[in-house]
Amino acid sequence: MKKSTKALAAAAAGALMITAGATAAANAGTAGTTEAPVVVPAVDVQPAPETVVQQNRIAAGASAQAVTAALAKCQADKIPFVTVALVDRFGTVQALLRGDNAAAHTIEAAKQKAYTAAAFGAPTSELARRVNGNGPSIADLPGTLFLAGGVPLKVNGVSVAGIGVGGAPDGALDEACAAAGAEAIAGAAK
């Protein structure tokens, strides 16, 4: 029994050395050559409507202004324990402001409501009415939350971002704060 265990160990060690040797040889095969490596140059794509998509985004200052205004509305309504998120239409956070004593779950709720509003171009309260309990629905899409509290931000009628609030005891309160944030920057462009 001891002989076979030693034989298996020796065979395994030999296989490991062969594998390591083959890897080293393959890696070293290019080290000694004098040929220059093949360099693929970057391609300069000409900006044209058929090749490049222009993207509108809410500016950093406006994003900060919107989340600040939304939180201020909630605080004025005696709801300081919310989180406000503003995301672009792809769900990337532009600005996030967590109110005093806001629970950790409010962060995700605010981001998901904002993304849902941005992605669908409608307030999440309206979208929630479209969800039914008869099998799979839009509510099953990852990263979305179909509860009131998300408002889309549009530029020339096209959804480019969303603002969401999470943490109020009622989604209508969340949505009122989100709407106040959206209105704070809508008037700035006029």
Automatic annotation (TrEMBL):
Superkingdom of this protein's organism: Bacteria
Protein name: Uncharacterized protein GlcG (DUF336 family)
UniProt signal peptide: 1-24
Matching Pfam families: HbpS-like (PF03928)
Classification via PANTHER family: PROTEIN GLCG, SLR1406 PROTEIN
Keywords, alphabetical: Signal
